[in-house]
Structure formats: structure tokens, C-alpha cells
Amino acid sequence: MKKFSLIILGLILALTIQAQEKLAVVNFDVTGESLTKEQYLSITRSEVSKMGRFLVIDKYTLQEALAENPVDLKSCFGIKCLTKVGQQVKADFVIAGSIEIIIDKAIVSLRLLDVSKGEIVKSSYSEFYWSESNAQRIVQLAVYQLFDKEVDQQLLNVYDYELAKQGKLEGPDLQVYNLTGPRFGGVYQTGTMGDVLKNNKNDGGFDKQPMMTVIGFQHEKQYLYTGSFQAVFQTNFSLTGLDQQIAIPSLNFLNGFRSTKNGWEFGFGPSFRIRKSAEGFYRTDEKGVKTWHLSDEALPYEGVSPTKRLDSRGSTKIISTWIWAIGRTFSAGKMNMPINLYTIPDKDGWLFGISLGYSLQSRKKSI
Asked: In the beta sheet, which residues pair with residue 232?
């Protein structure tokens, strides 16, 4: 039974191979400083083979057939010559192509000839951002377009010449901004919380200034890239107040959107930090001046409505807030320098901050 199954499998494979149409990559015209003709022929054969649609005739079989009936391939680009070569190697289809390099642009043209009909049945014309190290990718995209195979839009955004220019990119060698690195700056606390920071400790204050330094580290991960637009997930850990002998930790998670055209970006997300707070109430004296008191300081006849507020006498808890940020990245050689302004809204006073940083990671890497 096992032997019979193997025979059936062998017959199926044989019929599949026989049914598969044969294709020969015959010629490639190269203009400008680029790879050699033989390299482009080899790359094209490889990319067509990967599709699994055709049985691609190898270069040695092609050479043997042409040795029997010599053809000058230097000038074999016309329909009659290509048809003749296809008949000699018993191919169903023939591909001939050309590539012209003009500074940073690669113009790639491919033609598919039906040998039995003796006519071109399909052709493609593409303009790509040229990079010798990415020549294989360029040919692959040209082959995909010839056979109407779906192309990843992210690849087109980087390699297609017009799309790359619209995004003001640096071609297929571009590595989109990655701003993972250290951060430093300062914050200013407004409102009631700013006043509490300045008050003495007997009144629940901290005897500090509302302006403090911030130092931290940010890690980011890109999850969407469309050429001129990038979306990233950012994680930021920082310590605030080291200049005033305190260290207030915070952990921020931001969803960021960045323009690769000019470096502008904005982000938003939750922020988690440690805060000392206590439950108390405000007492108004005869002059209309309000003073803060803890709940246990209320007099028996006072009908107070306790609320929670920043207080150095209170308990330490982790609180959640929301952060909004906007900024721009400046580049100098391989160094990226992001500058961001951010704010954390709160009913007891908004916090405003500025963050500066740098990233020494090179922006160039093949995509």
C-alpha cells in the first residue's frame, strides 16, 4: 500500500511538472553604472522561480541551445529574435528587460512574450529609487508588477521613486527615526499643587520649588510606516526633582505619530506616578481666606465635605494621569535630537514640561 502511494505521488508530481509552463529569461539591457547584465538575468530568473508559476529554464540550458544555433544576444531585443530563442529552448514564454540608472533613479522595463503567438502579452514599466545594494529588491518589485502580484505598500513607499520623493526620504537605505535614548529637561507645576510644593511641611507642603529637573530614558518601537508618516509606541521612565533632593518616579506610555518629512510629532497616553495625598477640607476664615486642613482637624459643628489633595503628611500611592506631547526632531549627521513640550492636566493644577534627548543610532539600514 505504501509503495502504491509513492507511485501515485510520483505520477502526480510528473504531471504537475509537465503541465507547468516553461519560461526563459533571455536578455537584459543595462544603461548606467549598475550591476552586470549577467547579474540582472540571474536575479530575474531567481525572482520568477520563487513565484512557483513557471518552470524557469536555467542559463546553461539556454547556452547549449544557442550554441547549436547561434544568436547575437547583444542585439536580441526584438519580437522576432526573442521568439526564435524561445522556440529553440522550447519555452512557452520569454522575458526580456532593461534597466537605466539616472543618478538616484532606476527605470526598469520588463516584457513578457508568448512564444506560440509571437507577440508581447504583458509589459511593465517602473521607476525606483536606486541603490546598488537593493538591486535584487528592485528587480523583484518589477517582476511582481509584470505578473500583477500584490506588492506590500510599505515597500512601494520606500522604493517607488515618486512615493519616496513625496515623503522626502533618502531612498531604500532609509531607516525611519528611532529615538530610543536618554531624556532630560524640566517641569513646572501650576495651580494648587504648585502652591503646595512651596508651602512648609507643617501645612502639608514640601518646602520645594514648583520648577524641577527631569531625567530619564525613552524606548520606542515603530508599528506603522507609510513613507512620510510613522506611528510609534513609546515607553518613558523618568525621575523628577533630583535637583531638590527628591526623586519622584513616573512611567509613561505614549502612542506617537511622526512626520518623516520634517520631524514633527505628537503623542498621548497614560502616565503613572507616585504621589503623597491626604483627605482634608478647606476652612474659610472671617476674611474669606481659605486654609487646608486634614479631615481629623474638623470641628464637631463643621459640616465638611472631605476631598483628596497633594499633601506631604499623607500616604504614598500610585496615581494615573494623562499626558499630551508635541515636538520636533532635529538631525545632525547620525545624531537625532528630539525636543518635546508636554503637559499633564489636573483639576488641582496643570504640569508643563520640556524634554530634550538624543539618539546616536544610525538612520540608514536596508528595508
From this structure: 222, 256
